[in-house]
Amino acid sequence: MSESLHLTRNGSILEITLDRPKANAIDAKTSFEMGEVFLNFRDDPQLRVAIITGAGEKFFSAGWDLKAAAEGEAPDADFGPGGFAGLTEIFNLDKPVIAAVNGYAFGGGFELALAADFIVCADNASFALPEAKLGIVPDSGGVLRLPKILPPAIVNEMVMTGRRMGAEEALRWGIVNRVVSQAELMDNARELAQQLVNSAPLAIAALKEIYRTTSEMPVEEAYRYIRSGVLKHYPSVLHSEDAIEGPLAFAEKRDPGVERTLTTVSYYAFEGFNSGGSPDGVCPSQCRLDWRCDCGSRCLHRPTRLTAW
User: Fold this and answer.
1) What topology is assigned to 5-197 in CATH?
2) I want to staple 122 with a disulfide (CB 3.0 to 4.6 A). Which of 106, 163, 182, 284 is the partner?
3) Residue 71 annotated among the catalytic residues of the structure
4) Fold of 200-309
């Protein structure tokens, strides 16, 4: 890995530190490298959560490296398969990413943070999209993601004038999850990451999948969509070992004891059922891929063991 990125693995948590001179700005080469990191994180079954932060205490990232731009790097340069900063255009990442914003997040740096699932920021953090002042637009997600969070008037002011928003204001508007002191930033981000590790990974993957595919749908249409069987993770989680073990552990007042991994399970690899089952793996009530069964109530023919495909 390049000198611009420092990677640390703490169990199932990956920490990525962007470390570049002049405000942790990102050129195309660094963006490609970040994309490789995030794609490897996506595909590594041992990793569950990623934290992205910047080196130092002043800049999370100032965004696109304007020095590289002055030397000929075009705004529409190829920044890699993950888009700018390696994350802004990965749309099939079913693991959570936390942006630990340690200072200024300007331009593409702000867009990188917006592409994360959670933002924990230091109290000295500041956010801005100043691209219009430079004759370009925040097209690495800023002009697309920010309107999903803020009212139009606030979005217009930020993207058209480049005005800065401080940490406390960002918290009030719901852009960030937490504001903490600089000294507490990484510990707080790691605490959040551990909380995510304690949740079932298949459930988190299903949640991200549902958010991603239904956010623009009316609620009634979204209900039909998620129960249609077309989603990858949602049907699987209903019949996963976690779905069986979790409620059982709750009833027995203990922590879930299953080893949780992000595994897609096959509905048809049944080796027996916990109620009215059939040893040949055929549900006697013809259960469908839904939380309700043809027997008319919550399905009691869930498999006791599932085999991954």
Assistant:
1) 2-enoyl-CoA Hydratase; Chain A, domain 1 (3.90.226)
2) 182
3) no
4) Lyase 2-enoyl-coa Hydratase; Chain  A, domain 2 (1.10.12)
